[in-house]
Amino acid sequence: MRVVTDLEIKKATVMESDKVIKLLKDIGQWMKDKGIQQWGYLLEGGDDEEIHQAIVDQHTYIVSAGNQMIATFTLSPEQSDWDRHIFGDDETYDSLYLHRLAVKPSYMNQGIGKSLLNWIHENHNSHKKVVKLDCVAGNAKLNQFYRDNGFEYVGETDKHSKYQKVLG
Predict the structure, then answer these.
(1) What is the DSSP string of the chain?
(2) 43 contacts 32 by C-beta, under 8 angstroms
(3) What is the Cα Rg of the chain in Å?
């Protein structure tokens, strides 16, 4: 197991689009191989254009240790069609939406996911009051991860658990 102490978190550039998509697909394949029901659609290219657009819109971050990309996440100040489907219309416009928080498997179980959630909480640079996310309801480990990191379970829609956390 590698121990990571220094992480660099920065916005992804359009030139890094293919690397972000590859990382997400590699993690999606790892989950599929482990029998984890999450992100199967990524393997089929289902979100490639959305991922690319989030990078163009400056909503996607990459996380590096040394010169290696080890994680990524997207933090959007706008609702996607999926967000509206899961959470309903955000008529107050007070939410950020966290998507595709992913850590390379060889770097998992080192607190990186928790560090990224803390970084988001401290560095979101917006007037938004809440961060929202969803995950497959049947993924017990991931659901527990979000609860353990201060996210409040607010229900389920279409077999996806909904979580939110007030931003300070």
Answers:
(1) -------EEEEPPGGGHHHHHHHHHHHHHHHHHTT--S-HHHHTTTTHHHHHHHHHTT-EEEEEETTEEEEEEEEESS--HHHHHHH---TT--EEEEEEEEE-GGGTTSSHHHHHHHHHHHH--SS--EEEEEEETT-HHHHHHHHHTTPEEEEEETTEEEEEEE--
(2) yes
(3) 15
Domain range 8-166, CATH class: alpha beta
Q: Residue for token digits 């989030």? A: 54
Task: Indicate if the pLDDT at residue 4 is higher than 60.
Answer: no
Per-residue pLDDT tens over the stretch 75-107: 999 999 999 999 999 888 899 999 999 999 999
Q: Where are the domains of the chain?
A: 8-166
- At 51, the amino acid letter reads I
pTM, full prediction? 0.92
Task: Look at the alpha carbons of 75, 117, 135, 38 in this order and tell me if their dihedral is positive or negative.
Answer: positive
Question: Parallel, antiparallel, or unpaired: how do β-strands 60-65 and 95-103 relate?
Answer: unpaired
In whole angstroms, what is the distance from residue 121 CA to residue 64 CA? 19
Task: Average the pLDDT over 10-32 and give the result.
Answer: 95
